[in-house]
Amino acid sequence: MMLFSEVRGLPVVPPAGAGPIGTVTSLTVDVASGVVSHVRLRGSRLRRESVLPWDSVHAVGPGAVRVRSAAAPDTVAPHHGLLGRRVLTEAGTAHGTVLDVAFDPETGRLLAVFTTRGEVPPDRLLGLGDFALVVRAG
Predict the structure, then answer these.
(1) Alpha helix (H) ranges present in the chain?
(2) Quick one: which of 7, 63, 73, 90 has the fewest CB in 10 Å?
(3) How far apart are CA 42 and CA 98, in angstroms?
(4) Taking Cα atoms as reference points, which of 111, 24, 104 lies closest to residue 67?
């Protein structure tokens, strides 16, 4: 198990020991499937934000995110980050703010969302937008 906060700031390293291609800025989540879909990074050379699909990640550890290929990441549109996001139930009731997210570093599967009002299991996630993470009341 790893936390999103532990991954943020890690270098993204290609195979064969080449230098880092960037630093993790955040992880993008597909709320419907409950998995990490992309790793967002800021490039060490161009300083622009880029994205790598989760299936290009070979391993996530305490020292680095290792990718399968040294191919340049794609530039993408902005995403909705989870950390610091307001949490609302589907009825509009406030349920705190996201503090961190636990995930399986091998599969990218979400394990738990930790909020200021307690833990939310990933099967209660309904949607993520500009304003909030929407969860099923329970």
Answers:
(1) 4-7
(2) 63
(3) 23
(4) 24
Q: Quote the pTM value.
A: 0.88
Residues 124, 114: Cα–Cα separation, whole Å: 13
d(CA 43, CA 94): 36
Q: pLDDT digit string (tens) for 81-137?
A: 899 999 999 999 999 999 999 999 999 999 999 999 999 999 999 999 888 999 998
5-30 residues labelled b (16+ CB within 10 A) or e (exposed): ebbeebbbbbeeeeeebbbbbbbbbe
Contact 11/64 with Cβ under 8 angstroms?
A: yes
